[in-house]
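Justification of resources, computational component.

The compute hours requested in this renewal are based largely on the per-chain cost of generating structure records like the one below. Each record pairs the submitted sequence with a full structure-token output. That output is archived, and it is also reused by downstream analysis tasks.
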Amino acid sequence: MDTVMIVDDEQYSHDFYHEMLEGTEYEVISAYDSNEALSRLEEDDPVLIVTDSLVFQDIALTITGTEGAYSGCIGNIPVIIAGDFFLQVVLVQTFLTNKASDISQIKLTCESRGS
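The structure output for this chain reads:
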């Protein structure tokens, strides 16, 4: 099962994504700060990281921005950064829907993960 990592200090965000992705082929991994996220990245291999702010200050993160949202990569893992929760959810849904149909057409992709 593929995983999506949510990095946020607000519990509602984790609860929302757990509920949204329940019954899909995605499992949610929760991290509440950058240290926990980095620790989880050593154990887990998510297909996407979602956060409401730039919490990865100690990692090389290539970022591009468009109207209130940013995307980037940590290694070869796509990252969505959006402070607007509604916009964040739309970007996540778009990414996961497109990934399921044809990952090569998604703008928020990094190098092939070998899947």
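The CA atoms of residues 6 and 86 lie 15 Å apart. The radius of gyration is 13 Å.
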